[in-house]
User: Which sequence fits this backbone?
C-alpha cells in the first residue's frame, strides 16, 4: 500500500531532550516536507526536500533540523525541544515539488513538550 | 509573500444543507489544490485545478477556480455526516525556475448536528 509512515504517533518529552520523528515513504517520491499544525494557524511548512541531500527551510524552521540521506526517509530532528514546539506534526511527500499529483500525508505525530 | 485566505473559519450545518468554502490568494496562482482532514485524521488530497475558470465535480462536491486564478471555491450539495471535517485549500505559486511554493489556507471546519 502506498503510504507515508510517521513514528511515533504520540510523544511526550521534556524540555531540552533531543528527539527524532521519523518519516518514510514507499512511493519513490522525490519531494518530502514537514508541516506543523496548530489551532487557528493551519498547516505551516517547517522544512522540505526536493531530492536526496537537498533540503531547504520552509516558513517556520527555527528549532528544527532535517536530513535526506535516502530518498525514502526524511527525519525531523528537534535538538533541544521547547514547549512552543508542542504541536501536531505531519510529513508529506509528492512526486515533485509542484505536487501536481497532490501531497500524500502521514498520519501525524502529536508532540507534547513539558 | 504569498497569502492564501480561506473563509469561513467555521461552518455548522444541518444534514442535507449545502456548504461552501472560499479561498482567496493575494497573488495569481499556478494551481490550487483541495484537501480534507477528518477529525483526528490527516489531510487527504481531493483535487487539483489548474486552468482559469476550471470547474470539476466529484459526486456532491463542486470545485471552481476563478477566471483570474486568484480565488477558488468548494461547494458541497446536500451535506452528509461523512462530510464533517476541515477543508483546506492550497495555492501554488511558480515564481520561476525551481521556485515553486504551495501555501495552505487555514481551513474551514465543517460541523454538523448528529
Assistant:
Amino acid at each position: 500500500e502506498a503510504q507515508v509512515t510517521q513514528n511515533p504517533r504520540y510523544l511526550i518529552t521534556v524540555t531540552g531532550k533531543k528527539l527524532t520523528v521519523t518519516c518514510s515513504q514507499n512511493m519513490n517520491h522525490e519531494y518530502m516536507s514537514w508541516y506543523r499544525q496548530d489551532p487557528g494557524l493551519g498547516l505551516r511548512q517547517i522544512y522540505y526536500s526536493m531530492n536526496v541531500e537537498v533540503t531547504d527551510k520552509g516558513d517556520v524552521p527555527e528549532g528544527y533540523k532535517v536530513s535526506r540521506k535516502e530518498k525514502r526517509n526524511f527525519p525531523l530532528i528537534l535538538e533541544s525541544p521547547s514547549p512552543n514546539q508542542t504541536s501536531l506534526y505531519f510529513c508529506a511527500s509528492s512526486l515533485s515539488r509542484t505536487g501536481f499529483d497532490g501531497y500524500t500525508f502521514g498520519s501525524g505525530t502529536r508532540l507534547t513538550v513539558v | 509573500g504569498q497569502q492564501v485566505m480561506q473563509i469561513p473559519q467555521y461552518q455548522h450545518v444541518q444534514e442535507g444543507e449545502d456548504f461552501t468554502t472560499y479561498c482567496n490568494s493575494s497573488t495569481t496562482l499556478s494551481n490550487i489544490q483541495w484537501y480534507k482532514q477528518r477529525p483526528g485524521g490527516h489531510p487527504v488530497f481531493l483535487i487539483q485545478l489548474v486552468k482559469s475558470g476550471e470547474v470539476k465535480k466529484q459526486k456532491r462536491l463542486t470545485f471552481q477556480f476563478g477566471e483570474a486564478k486568484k480565488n477558488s471555491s468548494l461547494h458541497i450539495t446536500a451535506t452528509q455526516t461523512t462530510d464533517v471535517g476541515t477543508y483546506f485549500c492550497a495555492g501554488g505559486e511558480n515564481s520561476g525556475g525551481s521556485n515553486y511554493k504551495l501555501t495552505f489556507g487555514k481551513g474551514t471546519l465543517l460541523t454538523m448536528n448528529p
